[in-house]
Amino acid sequence: MKYLKLFLVMLKIGLFTFGGGYAMIALIQSELVSKRKWLNDGEFADMVAIAESTPGPVAINAATYVGYKTGGFLGALVATVGVVLPSFAIIFLISLFFNEFLTIRWVAAAFSGIRVCVVFLIFSAGAKMFSGIKKSPLNLVIFGATFACMLLFSLFSVNFSSVFYILASGALGLVFYLVCFTKDRLKKKRGENKEDTDKKEGGEE
């Protein structure tokens, strides 16, 4: 029953999402965080970061992650098949009469409306994720720097791959972690040295 529910949820996400993985994030958040409580806001943000940082489409990586978390290997398989199946079936059918499909006016009009909706879905998902993350100095610095770079590069038509944003943000997070880890170790070591010194002084007295 658990695997059937997981399959149906992912099938629904794959069937009613237009615009690729980023647009799918909003529906994934609604289904898995808000409705079913399979993930909390922090886990969802981590899932998106992992899905974006690893090779492959965001939506498929996210589905595999959620499936594995809720049902192990079989859950990951079921979730991945569920989210991929609608797209595979629809694209296969379209490919049979692709040229005729593009000439249908109401199809072109429908996709024009869908494009506008996709922009809102991506913005909505980003706003919800930002409101759910911890507002630490590091997070705010990375967010502000990334947003500023994307805006400036877009205005000045600078070709800069989103891969570099991911790598730079990951490097900053790793450096911050190492700095904090080193400071904690030094602090702990100073505390241990102080305890040893106090014990020696107490013994001499």
Topology of helices and strands:
Elements: H1 2-15, H2 21-35, H3 41-53, H4 58-96, H5 98-102, H6 105-132, H7 137-155, H8 162-204
Helix pairs in contact: 1-2, 1-4, 2-6, 3-4
Approximate helicity band: over 70%
Compute the average pLDDT: 80
How many strand segments? 0
Overall geometry comes to elongated
Alpha-beta classification: mainly alpha
Give the C-alpha Rg. 24 Å
Count of separate DSSP helical elements: 8
- Largest sheet properties: none
Which regions are unreliable across 5 or more consecutive residues at pLDDT < 50?
A: none
Strand-residue proportion: under 5%
First-to-last CA distance: 71 Å
Number of domains: 2
Series of secondary-structure elements, N-terminal to C-terminal: HHHHHHHH
Keywords:
205 residues; mainly alpha; 8 helices; 86% helix; elongated
Would you write up a description of this structure?
- The chain is an all-alpha fold.
- It folds into two domains: 133 residues, no CATH class; 72 residues.
- It is built from eight helices and no strands.
- The radius of gyration is 24 Å and the shape is elongated.
- The chain starts with a helix and ends with a helix.
- The model has no long low-confidence stretch (mean pLDDT 80).
Question: Gist?
Answer:
86% of the residues lie in helices and 0% in strands.
